[in-house]
User: What shape does this take?
Amino acid sequence: MFFHYLCKHMRYKWLIFLLAALSWLPAWAQTETARETLRAAQQQSRRPVTGTPMYFELDEHGDTVFMETLDPVWIFPKGRKMRDGDWRKYYKLVYNFNKVYPYALVGRKMIAQVDSTIAADATKRSERNQYINDVEKELFRLFEKDIRHMTVSQGLVLMRLVDRECGMSAFTIIKTYENGLAANFWQLVAKLFSQNLKTRYDPTKGEDAKIEELCKIWDSGQWDAFYYSIFMERPAKVVIQRETLETEVRKKSR
Assistant: This one.
């Protein structure tokens, strides 16, 4: 009755609007407070966006299909039984192999280059000796820093791989390109580490058989997947400055 009475009198109409506004104000204030509280809660619970975005393709019907590429995994064959200590040694061998095998491959190319250069250009013994000395100095400039940072176990694996790739034991290589005295000296040094430079690479026995298995995996193009399956990371790539020698035979003027 009170509101009906007010509506009949125009001079009191503004009171109607005022009362309506006052009655709506508390509800509006409570709504805004609730919204601010909700925003604050969402802001606190929101996690930063991480990960890699997925790419997509459109299928034949025009629908979006999200695509993802999974990292390859190497599956070990059945029947391989090794103790924990043996697995640790094997993982160490895989790690060392990844470090040194590229040097063995480059060494094979360089020895072939040296042999062909000597056969074609070094007609005199003095020229041959001078050429070998120059090659030794160039090799020292190229690889001295890298080899100094290798561990003893990595050096031993490299020695086995050089024999595999070049077809000569370390003792024979030193004797062929240096002399017998140098070969015997380094053989004595190898003995201090319980090694023998004259031992030939045998892909069917012992440690050499494991190395041969790794060589086959490398040559098959599956090395990255194999290494990732063991260490859950990509193998570090060995960067070699040069794969050929610049040294040439210095001819003596007559």
